[in-house]
Write a structure and sequence with these properties.
Layout lengths: L12 H11 L2 H9 L2 H24 L4 H6 L14 H8 L7 H32 L5 H10 L5 H13 L2 E2 L2 E2 L2 H4 L5 H23 L4 H9 L4 H12 L1 H16 L3 H6 L7 H8 L8 H10 L1 H9 L1 H9 L6
Antiparallel strand pairs: 1-2
Helix pairs in contact: 5-16, 6-10, 6-13, 6-15, 7-10, 10-13, 13-18, 15-16
Length: 320
């Protein structure tokens, strides 16, 4: 039996150009541009420009109040001064009901539930919209998506009125959830404001799970609960962690919702820091020290979940 010798067919100039265009596809060109030397230099310049104000704030937090008011932070070597008085005054500052240490505890008590509650509800809703067929699903999802364009300022007063009447959207609620001086109002408000975006983002990740995986689980007799906890949650963990970081940072740095719903002994750090600057902002040098105290926890959370954050941002960006 004679061997079959492959024959190379001649390729004309047009076909060769098309093949080269296929090899030099748009994603590859974009990758080369983003990894080029110019892109790297531009990214470094942007990082430096973004960091300079933060570094200046950090330097000012260790300077005496008089020098902060009269000279710029870049004159630190000409007007040398180094003190911890700003941090000491900030830690002792506060109103009659709470100091900064208590406000720090309040921020943690507000932020953790306000991050976990919408994350749990949104993950369940995202699974339902993606893999459960029910009447009116598309209309309901569009309605949830449209809620993202509603400004928070429009619903603060109506929501406060609902709380004051002891009901929520016509349904009576437990008195402890609506009475002043508790965390529940802040948790409910942050949960309501976070759910539209959370459901939309998590739905995009949940819907990208291969249908074969879900169908195989159903063939093996798995119900919706088993599919959700054993398949959906592990596969979408990067996206859950990415949204958790965003929600944690947003709630931790929030001042608007805190001004409306968190008063008195449950006030978070953001509200207290806005008060220690004085009625006319004359003590703004204390804000430089308070700002760095307030960013300790967000930095720990971000660096602890950084690998999940990057994986969650890149999830769905590539196929295959």
């Amino acid at each position: 039996m004679s061997a079959v010798v492959p024959v190379e067919l001649p390729i004309d100039a047009d076909t060769e150009k098309q093949l080269r265009r296929g090899e030099d596809s748009a994603p590859r060109r974009t990758k080369r541009r983003l990894t080029s030397r110019g892109a790297t230099i531009a990214a470094l310049l942007i990082a430096v420009l973004w960091t300079v104000p933060t570094f200046g704030l950090f330097v000012s937090s260790f300077r005496p109040a008089q020098q902060v008011r009269t000279t710029g932070w870049w004159t630190i070597f000409e007007n040398w001064g180094f003190t911890f008085d700003n941090y000491g005054e900030v830690l002792k500052a506060g109103n009659s009901q709470i100091d900064l240490a208590g406000a720090f505890i309040n921020s943690i008590a507000i932020t953790l539930p306000a991050t976990l509650i919408p994350l749990m509800i949104a993950s369940l809703a995202a699974y339902a919209f993606a893999w459960i067929d029910f009447r009116g699903k598309d209309i309901m999802f569009i309605a949830v998506f449209a809620l993202q364009i509603v400004p928070i300022q429009m619903v603060l007063v109506p929501l406060l009125q609902y709380f004051s009447r002891g009901e929520l959207f016509g349904f009576p609620v437990v008195e402890s959830l609506t009475e002043g001086g508790g965390y529940a109002q802040v948790w409910i408000a942050h949960t309501m404001f976070a759910l539209p975006l959370a459901i939309f983002l998590l739905h995009n990740f949940v819907s990208e799970i291969p249908r074969e995986v879900i169908e195989a689980a159903r063939v093996d007799g798995a119900g919706h609960g088993q599919i959700f906890f054993r398949i959906i949650i592990p596969l979408t963990m990067p996206s859950l962690a990415a949204f958790a970081i965003f929600q944690f940072l947003w709630v931790w740095n929030d001042l608007l919702v805190a001004l409306v719903f968190a008063d008195g002994a449950v006030a978070p750090m953001t509200k207290l820091l806005a008060e220690i600057t004085g009625t006319r902002g004359q003590d703004w040098h204390l804000l430089t020290a308070g700002a760095f105290i307030s960013i300790l926890v967000p930095l720990i959370v971000f660096f602890a979940l950084q690998r999940y954050f990057v994986r969650g941002l890149l999830a769905g960006s590539t196929k295959g």
